Amino acid sequence: MSDIRPHEVQISVPDPEDARLYFIGRIRTPWTDRKACPRQGKEDGPDCQVEIFEPWVPALQGIEDYARIELLYWLNQARRDLVIQNPGHNDGTFGTFALRSPVRPNLIGTSLVKLVSVDGPVLTVRGLDCLDGTPLVDVKPDRCSFTPKAPPKD
Ligand code: SAM
């Protein structure tokens, strides 16, 4: 990819060290065009579906107890080779790690979403901002409401 904005800096990226991620599901949203996606999801946004693939479905056990969950997803249509970006198409540039842009070396996006319902392998959530078909990397309970169990006594 070489179509960059004024003042942006592109690098030649090294071969990735393979983290061997599993795509554990797929996110279904109303958006098929990046420009139509919200920049950050909102809880008054539309219901979206998160489909969990086998053999990961049993890993959902207990998720229904949470009002909010965190989703991690792979922003698969973004480029990975910019270290300086120009999000406003003007003179204002920012380092990639000072932005929540989808363009980054590892294409991980996160959203804290409202869990509306759980129906077998399908979670209905509100608060997403990604394209229809975006691969899912992980699901975690909202860290604020998660209380780890006490360690077993000796
Ligand atoms: N909420 C996440 C975060 O903060 O990590 C993502 C924020 S990012 C600014 C959201 C934007 O990424 C959307 O507005 C859209 O332009 C773009 N986007 C969404 N899904 C994408 C995908 N699958 N591949 C590439 N870009 C995507």
Task: Give the gist of this structure.
With about 150 residues, the protein is mainly β. About 0% of the residues lie in helices and about 30% in strands.
What does this structure look like?
The chain has 154 residues and is an all-beta fold. The protein has one domain: Elongation Factor Tu (Ef-tu), domain 3 (Beta Barrel), CATH 2.40.30.70. β5 and β6 form a beta hairpin. It is globular, with a radius of gyration of 18 Å. The site of S-adenosylmethionine has 19 residues, from β7.
CATH architecture: Beta Barrel
Total discrete domains: 1
The major β-sheet equals: 6 strands, antiparallel, barrel
CATH superfamily: YaeB-like
Mean pLDDT metric: 93
Topology, pairings included?
Blueprint: E1 9-10, E2 25-28, E3 47-52, E4 68-74, E5 82-85, E6 94-95, E7 108-119, E8 122-126, E9 134-141
The chain binds S-adenosylmethionine (SAM).
